[in-house]
From TrEMBL:
Pfam families: SpoIIE (PF07228). This is Serine/threonine-protein phosphatase. InterPro entries: Bact_Sigma-Reg (IPR052016), PPM-type-like_dom_sf (IPR036457), PPM-type_phosphatase-like_dom (IPR001932). GO terms for molecular function: phosphatase activity. The chain crosses the membrane at residues 62-79, 86-106, 112-133. Residues 169-378 form the PPM-type phosphatase domain. Keywords: Hydrolase, Membrane, Transmembrane, Transmembrane helix.
Amino acid sequence: MAHGGVDSFKARLRKAVHRARVALRKSAVDYFRGDGSDTLALSGLLLTVPAFTWGTIKIPEWISPAALVLPIVAGALLLRPASLLGLYAACAAGLIVETFVLGPYTDGPARVTPGTVLVVAACGFFGLLIAQFRARVGVPWRRGGTMLFDLRERIRVQSALPRLPKGWHREMALRPAGGQSFSGDFVVAARTNGGRTLEVVLTDVSGKGMDAASRALLLSGAFGGLLGSLPPHGFLPAANGYLLRQDWDEGFATSIHLVLDLESGDYELLSAGHLPALQLNAGTGRWEEKSGEGPLLGVYDGAQFDPVKGSLRPGDVLMLFTDGLVETHERDLAEGMDRLTGEADRYVPSGFEGAAWHLIEAVAKDVNDDRALLLVCRDA
């Protein structure tokens, strides 16, 4: 019986320890995500206030009265606005205690001066603005960076091109404006018709960089869902209707839709106000513009998009790109396209292996605009 009682006690102890571990882990995860209470953080920061106050009184040569800005800055990142006000009250009380104990600032150094009060108050003001912004957005600082990283990775995954059968080569490079991580240009692609057809949509959202990134993320998800779910000629009308329903102030976009038969090499290009594609004819060595007709996406309802047809023979290359690659304030569109094709000719002998990224570097390295380039090559 005694042995059974010991085993029962050990079992209960293991269960209690397990429940405590689960509860602690859950609270830690909730706090990291911003869902948990900030009581623990508030308690810890409140304890630092008397510690700094005591240090200022006892060892003023090491801890100045302005040290109270440290819990204020930490509170701006960790606490909700209501809790932050409680921390501010404690810091104000600490300054008052230091003033009474140390005496007026005219009596010597290491006193609470008007400048000290001004610095602490300014930090508190900006800290409260940060806390209110976080509360309004609903994304705590602990989760904000992770969320942005996740959004960037989603755009990257959605822009990945599917593998092509033997005899085909594809490359894509995208460079956001100003070296940022987010871009208003994006690509969605899929192999449809049992894998025989490659459909690629290159879109340039109005604006650039972070201003266009949120709209590009929303559109890339929507366009990725539409692509392959509709007949090729129904994609751009559906995308146009989707943009119109968003009712954005700056909600237009340009887009080009490639529908390529991977067995025959025949293709159709449908354009919504986008720049023409460029095709290299391996037989003549010349570049030819290929452009469908259609208005910008998100401008008016009932728009029609007329395709242009072509064919990629062995050795041919089709190049799709956005305006940031070829058009700047210093050069017009025709000059930019001439420069792009001139640089692209250098990669003909190598079959355009690794060419997309290098072409952006050569043609539009320092351009303050989003740049995207897509190459589809048929091996000779």
